[in-house]
Amino acid sequence: MPSHPDDVAIVYRNLQKYVGWSDFDARVIKELRGEIQPYFQAMIDDFYQTINDHDFTRCIITGGEDQISRLKGTLYQWLDSLFSGPYGAEFAWSRWRVGIRHVEIGLHQAYAIAAMGRLRFSINEAICALGKEQRVDAAAAIGSINKLLDIDLALIDLAYQRKAMEQLHVAAQEKVQQAERLASIGQMVTGLAHESRNALQRSQASLEALLLDIEDRPDALAQARHIQVALDHLHMLYEEVRSYAAPIVLEREEIDAEKLINLVWENLKPSWSQFQTQVEFHYRGLAPCIINVDRYRMIQVLTNLFQNAIEAAGAQGKIRCTVTCHGNSQVEVAIEDDGPGIADGVAKKIFEPFFTTKSKGTGLGLAIAQRIMEAHNGKISVSRGELGGARFSFQLN
Ligand code: HEM
Asked: Which residues have CB under 6 Å of ligand 1?
């Protein structure tokens, strides 16, 4: 993609060859110049009238009448140089810059092409009028000018393509930087989790001994139990970090999806009974729905999704779990809640590691769920559900 004058000059020469541009064309157009100049003002007025008549182009002109009169001047020069050349490297670069300028101001490519069509029409019309008066050879003039306009149009198209490539490049670079940042954070956190594990185990052992010593002192026992809850929580965090960092090796087996889901839901009883959550299970398609998955990993995913749904739904909230079994191991599991839902900006980041909207937690639960689904060649996604809250679903193929 050209970005230097020399590159643009090469592209321009190639385009000239492609459309069959010759010295004859250059001569025809130069001879036309003096004759067609009186038509420029009408062409320019028509051009800016059309811009003004259409919302999509009018909104780009933000500087009012001043800008329009300046633009009319630049379009005059553009037309004049179109008919005077010389059609070499300098000309090519100035035409390319005009294309780039339109990309920069946010003019949609379709309107740049349509506007060029409008100019082409006005120019051809003027040539026909001159031809009728036998002041120019209209057939030759139309042939030559259209070659030149085609090359200009090709440059405009290239300018838009370059912009698109630049945007892709920037997005790819941002992704790499983000991955590098996450890799170093990941390494640091994994190291920290590993080092802290021994300390945590020692604390837990000491606490257990202490609990035995203070059995007859209820106040102290209550305090010590708080410490135990906090240590259990820390332990869980370490396990999550470890689980995210560790490579996923699946041990697949054939499992009845309904039984697995019931098991996970029952395991979460302490959470949902405390919230008095109402739940619905829907099983569609083939029964029994047999899936070929890693049991332990699938329990991790389902536990995470149900736990999130229970928390989002809150007291007496509603959860709906729908399993659609298409056969050939194609299964979709959707878990919806009637909580506040997930804002658009958050939905894009929700599977990123360490991203969390909760005050507790590592922000790794959904990132781990996504890794597990990917390891199963499956997909996990989030959207707004029919209950009004979030709908997390995963597909297995
Ligand atoms: C394809 C046909 C077009 C041609 C030949 C053309 C020509 C030009 C030229 C020669 C310039 C000056 C470039 C520079 O600053 O270096 C320019 C700038 C500009 N054009 Fe066009 N234009 C076209 C289409 C359009 C359309 C459809 C719009 C719609 C709004 C538009 C809006 C503008 C604006 C806003 C600027 C920047 C003005 C500034 O810097 O203040 N152009 N155009």
From this structure: 51, 57, 60-61, 67, 71, 74-75, 78, 97-98, 101-102, 105, 107, 111-112, 115-116, 119
- How far, in Å, from the CA of 333 to the mean position of ligand 1? 52
> Which residue in this structure is represented by tokens 């070929």?
292
Q: Which of 53, 54, 74, 95 to mutate to test the pocket of ligand 1 (most atoms within 8 A of CB)?
A: 74
Q: In whole angstroms, give the CA distance from residue 140 to residue 142.
A: 6
119 CA closest ligand 1 atom index? 2
Q: Are 13 and 101 in contact (CB under 8 A)?
A: no
Tens digits of residue pLDDT in 219-275:
999 999 999 988 888 887 787 777 777 778 899 999 999 999 999 999 999 999 999
pTM of the model: 0.56
CB proximity list for 97: less than 8 A, separation 6 or greater = none
pLDDT in tens, 65-112: 899 999 999 999 999 999 998 999 999 999 999 988 888 888 888 999
Unique residue bearing structure tokens 């979030």: 390
